[in-house]
Here is the input.
Amino acid sequence: MKKLKLFSILFFGYAILTIIMTYPAVFRLSSHFMYDSGDGFQNVWNMWWMKTSLTKGTHSHYTNFLHYLDGITLLFQT
Here is the structure.
């Protein structure tokens, strides 16, 4: 019982700290993206592509949207 209590205190403590440190962005995750000026836009595209490929049943590690007509593998995409 002591382990469960300790786990609960630590879990909720870290959750509260995370919310405080990422405020107000944590409350806008459904409409905003948190990224820097580096690979941020690429990661947004990756998330869009994974959603699109999984909902349409296409291959998630290959796309024709890049290097069109030939397409490109996304196996080494970060």
The chain has two helices and two strands.
